[in-house]
Amino acid sequence: MRNSKNQHGLTFISWLVVAALFVFIAVTIVKLVPVYIKYDSVKTIVDKVAQDPKSVKLNKRIIMANIDKHIDVSSIYDLTSKQFTLEKVRKSKKARKLSVSYEDRVNWFANLDIVAVFEYSAIIGDE
Fold first, then answer.
1. Model-level pTM?
2. Is residue 23 one of the residues assigned to a domain?
């Protein structure tokens, strides 16, 4: 006859698998949080420049210089105004579109990297 009190729960190996999965997820989150914090800062820069009433009258060179100043203040060291573009909006006389497109690469483990691609844009002036 079998013992009527069967054991319930996880074995030691099962606990190791669960712990390894937890560590995998935790390391990934810890590596990605700074990437998304930086993206939020970049979005804020684009929005500030786009919402500034003076930006409507400024030329491209001055707008890019303002973006560089915002980047310096935000302590973003691996991004420059070269990743930003400023183009006219079709069917509008004064509106321009300020866009940023960049990728952020974070070393995850050994020779494996996590690559995140970001794009964001805002309209300067009235459409």
1. 0.81
2. no
